[in-house]
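Input/output pair, single chain:
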Amino acid sequence: MEIERKFTISRLPENLESYPCHIIEQAYLNTDPVVRIRREDDTFYLTYKGKGLLAREEYNLPLNEASYYHLREKADGNVISKKRYVIPILNPQFNMTQLSSTEFSVDQVSLSVELDIFEPPFAPLIIAEVEFPDKETAEAFLPLDWFSQDVTNDPAYHNSNLSKRTFL
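Output:
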């Protein structure tokens, strides 16, 4: 189960180049249900995603390079290219009144931001994604100060929908 929130950002974080960065290319064979292929650096995947916005099923299967490029020729819409920076959240903050568990400890939650900087034709789009262990933690999470709008529930920000955008 993938449980994540998505945000636009108000500014790039400091020292961005000091964080791990992955080069990602992905394309969609189908968008309902979502069937995606992805190259992340030198690793290749086929992914199935179920329905949902905050939480949805996700299954990843390994592909080899030849299979990836064979399937990419069959993809619909735009191929999406982006750089993904992985930024740890050192002291995540939560609205504690939204957490029912008396056992909840902020120290037990390890979170990171996956900051996607899209290449043309999607540039200057930048999206921050944060994955969570459960829905309750996701809903209680307080966004970082450089986050802007919460677009978790806006399907327009799903990469599968971005792949269908038309550019003039």
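The longest helix spans residues 65-72. Residues 2-162 form a domain with the Hypothetical Protein Pfu-838710-001 fold (CATH 2.40.320.10).
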